[in-house]
Design a protein that fits this description.
By secondary structure, this protein is an alpha/beta fold. It is 30% helix and 25% strand. The chain has helices at residues 20-33, 52-65, 89-96, 128-131, 160-172, and strands at residues 8-14, 38-43, 69-74, 77-79, 82-83, 103-107, 116-120, 135-140, 154-156. Strands 5-4-3-2-6-1-7-8-9 form a nine-stranded mixed sheet, with helices on both faces. The N and C termini lie close together (10 Å).
């Protein structure tokens, strides 16, 4: 893929401990078995620059899963050995074009307008389904009342084979 050429983008969003990083790892591994490459931009949404230990922990998980590049951004600090005062998600995406990957996974940045999977851990998280845009799938630790959200493809966390097949089909069709 040439520098600057479009690649597929998929956001993984949800609140803390909802399974975002684990889902990103699973997607990277599955893509790798298909001969496809992935990189990850993770948003550190806890205020301030990401701490070194947090960066190493999540980036290492992404690398071990097979990511070509994995970075964590927060308060303008990108932990990929780069520091720019005003990283926007668009600038990060342009920067990641250098790695020429098939899929760019974005963990976090809930309000960005890219296709996204929402991870739900408890009932309070359901409000995300009414406030976020471009939702292509929902993976939940709790039952989702399908009559309340009939336009979403909803999966229970234990339906891994179903949601992985669905997501791979969604992203591979765009590669």
């Amino acid at each position: 893929m040439a520098l600057g050429q479009c690649r597929s983008i998929l956001q993984i969003v949800g609140y803390q401990e909802s399974g975002k990083t684990t889902l990103v790892e699973k997607l990277i591994r599955r893509l790798k078995t298909l001969g496809l490459t992935a990189a990850v931009i993770k948003h550190h949404g806890h205020g301030g620059a990401p701490a070194q230990e947090m960066t190493v922990k999540d980036s290492l998980r992404h690398y071990k899963a097979g990511a070509v590049a994995a970075g964590v951004e927060g308060a303008g600090s990108l932990r990929l050995s780069a520091n720019v005062s005003d990283w926007s998600l668009e600038k990060l995406i342009q920067f990641y074009d250098f790695f020429s990957v098939d899929l760019l996974l974005i963990e976090g940045y809930k309000q960005a307008h890219y296709p996204k999977v929402v991870c739900i851990r408890c009932e309070e998280d359901l409000q995300l389904l009414t406030t976020l845009t471009h939702i292509v799938g929902v993976i939940s630790h709790i039952p989702i009342p399908q009559e309340d959200f009939p336009h979403f493809h909803c999966f229970r966390i234990e339906e891994e084979q179903l949601y992985m097949n669905y997501l791979i089909k969604k992203v591979v069709s765009k590669v």
